[in-house]
């Protein structure tokens, strides 16, 4: 398998010449990076921005920063909108989970329609990973309000109905739980252990057009911990869907 940077560049539609022009380096240097050589930090930052992949994903063996300047709560990367997050990124997030996978959204239909994601969630549950999926109550007042805010009326409820039909068969697998909630979601949260992709919600815009934060929990009082706590609060109020 090609090194991550080569795959990330291909997924972003970039070749060695394109990257060399953006970073003012020789294309042969980029080819060496594609082959596995680790670039200087200043180049790594630009490559992460160009590809949309985090440092950890591009260079898995890179030692984490230490010392007084090390981050206390690691913001791995940010995306301008959810549609900029490659499907491969979602798969890699959940593939890394060893204990816990969580999906908190209104519909998360883009994942439900991915057959490979369904197989991945099943495989993780069979390996002992707890999988929790919380979707919006399509008959709830907050879904109706969200649809009105976005100017799409009943579309969100229809998306939830479709997503429920796709997610429900997964609950036949022990370890996969599905609940519905009627809460105001300020963010959709996708977690794998202490790593998260947080899709912020923006008034009047669908979630796919809103930014995404890629976080990793380092401390108990940092940014990632706040979102993990929010996930648990919603899960506690959610309930199993009617059969």
Under the CATH scheme, which class of the largest domain?
A: Alpha Beta
Give the beta-strand count: 7
Shape: globular
Read across the widest sheet, the strand sequence of neighbours is 1-7-6-5-2-3-4
Count of discrete domains: 2
* Helix/sheet category: alpha/beta
The fraction of residues in strands falls at 15-25%
Q: Secondary-structure element sequence?
A: HHHHHEHEHHEHHEEEEH
Task: State the helical fraction.
Answer: 40-55%
Give the terminus-to-terminus CA distance. 44 Å
Condensed summary:
By secondary structure, the chain is of the alpha/beta class. It is built from eleven helices and seven strands.
Describe this structure in words.
This protein is of the alpha/beta class and 243 residues long. It has 2 domains: 4-58, 434 Repressor (Amino-terminal Domain), CATH 1.10.260; 74-237, Endonuclease Chain A (Endonuclease, Chain A, 2-Layer Sandwich), CATH 3.30.870.10. The protein has 11 helices and 7 strands. The chain has helices at 4-11, 16-23, 27-34, 41-51, 55-58, 87-95, 109-112, 115-126, 141-150, 155-167, 223-237, and strands spanning 74-79, 100-104, 130-136, 176-181, 187-192, 195-200, 212-216. Strands 1-7-6-5-2-3-4 form a 7-stranded mixed sheet, sandwiched between helices. Strand 5 (187-192) and strand 6 form a beta hairpin. Helix 2 (16-23) crosses helix 3. The relative contact order is 0.14.
């Amino acid at each position: 398998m090609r090194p991550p940077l080569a795959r990330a560049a291909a997924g972003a539609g970039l070749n060695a010449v394109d990257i060399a022009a953006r970073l003012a380096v020789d294309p042969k240097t980029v080819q060496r990076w594609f082959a596995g050589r680790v670039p200087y930090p200043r180049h790594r930052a630009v490559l992460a921005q160009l590809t949309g992949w985090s440092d950890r994903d591009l260079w898995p063996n890179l030692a984490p920063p230490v010392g007084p300047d090390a981050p206390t709560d690691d913001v791995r990367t940010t995306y301008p909108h959810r549609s900029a997050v490659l499907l491969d990124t979602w798969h890699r997030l959940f593939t890394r989970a060893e204990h816990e996978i969580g999906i908190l959204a209104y519909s998360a239909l883009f994942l439900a329609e991915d057959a490979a994601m369904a197989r991945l969630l099943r495989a993780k549950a069979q390996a002992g990973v707890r999988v929790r999926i919380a979707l919006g109550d399509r008959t709830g007042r907050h879904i109706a309000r969200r649809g009105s805010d976005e100017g799409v009326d009943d579309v969100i409820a229809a998306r939830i109905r479709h997503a429920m039909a796709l997610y429900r068969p997964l609950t036949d697998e022990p370890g996969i739980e599905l609940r519905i909630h009627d809460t105001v979601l300020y963010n959709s949260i996708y977690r794998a252990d202490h790593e998260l992709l947080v899709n912020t919600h923006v008034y009047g815009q669908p979630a796919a057009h809103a930014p995404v934060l890629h976080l990793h929990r380092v401390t108990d009082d940092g940014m990632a911990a706040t979102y993990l706590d929010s996930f648990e609060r919603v899960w506690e109020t959610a309930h199993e869907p009617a059969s």
